[in-house]
Amino acid sequence: MLLSSDSDSDLEMLAQLSDCSDEDETQRRSPKRIRRVNYTQSLDDGDFTFRFRLNKHAFNSLLLEITPLLRVTSTRNYGVSPLHQLLLTLRFYALGTMLISVADFVGVSKSTAGRIVRDTSLAIAQLYDKYIYVHQRSADKFYRIAGFPRVLGAIDGTHIRIQSPCHLTGEEYRNRKGYFSINVQGVCDADLKFINVVARWPGSTHDATIFNNSVLRAECDAGQFGNRWLLGDSAYPNRPYLLTPILNPVSEAEHRYNEAHIKTRNTIERAFGVWKRRFPVVALTLRLSIPNMQAVIIATTVLHNICRNHNLTEIPSEVELPSIDNSTMPHNVIDDIPTMHRTDIINNYFRTL
């Protein structure tokens, strides 16, 4: 195309072409802004709670607590805000599905979704000491269940299914039922809130081993909780602060002791059930690295207590869950405290039941 130097129209056309080229270059260099949906505004409270397992009030309170740990200071690479990081993580907990599914939910890659779940789970897990702690305020509520006095909490273990970690250590995580798992120790109060959680042992580990190597056991040995009792099943050793059922009751008092023990200890079974139904990710099969799975387990127990604090009712799961079985290892631990210890307890406290 030939242009005359003295043509005003040609000069004007050249200026327009130059402006267009500059605009195209600016558009190529400037980052695109991805518009992500704020579901706290687009959904009503009922639909929001069903999809994210927390109501809006609990969600906003939690977001304020963890935002300093998730702050995004740059818009490079389409940075995901703390709000959408928390939404993605809660959606992952609610579905317990592949990371790619929740990645599409917010509009990020699978690897970014994995990082978000990891970082957000670790941030929530850091709230453990605030929401999960041993207290002695439930003794009266425990007593009203079946007349069992001085109860500190109910203890048990539950298996969380996982994908085999690797061929070298995988068999350590295979439990007695043949699948890979993490054996999680939980202690709850009468309101079904967790007061102690340990989530670092392979599925092949016995419940008693987890307890014997726990900080809780050291605190009980030191007499930190006075004359309070933990109630456990026959997988645990009988100790002055940890009472188990009598395997072969004979007298009426022993039968009453067992009945009161079973009814009171059932709170931990119920707590596990409520926890897994609200957060199906721990009822299905976790497919993450071991540290990330441990973070998810602790984070969901923290969220469980937050839900109990806000008096949130149970909500149905969006996915089909397997039958929840909280049984762990065979009950074959030999008591290392004489049977007379329990007999004295029965005679002193359960004669009038």
From TrEMBL:
InterPro entries cross-referenced by the UniProt entry: HARBI1-like (IPR045249), HARBI1_dom (IPR027806)
Cofactor(s) it depends on: a divalent metal cation
Subcellular localization, as worded in the UniProt entry: Nucleus
Keywords: Hydrolase, Metal-binding, Nuclease, Nucleus
Primary subcellular site in the record, as a coarse category: nucleus
Cellular component terms per the entry's GO annotation: nucleus
Annotated GO MF terms: hydrolase activity; metal ion binding; nuclease activity
Organism superkingdom: Eukaryota
Record domain DDE Tnp4: where: 155-305
Family according to the record: Belongs to the HARBI1 family.
Descriptive protein name: DDE Tnp4 domain-containing protein
Source organism per UniProt: Parnassius mnemosyne (clouded apollo)
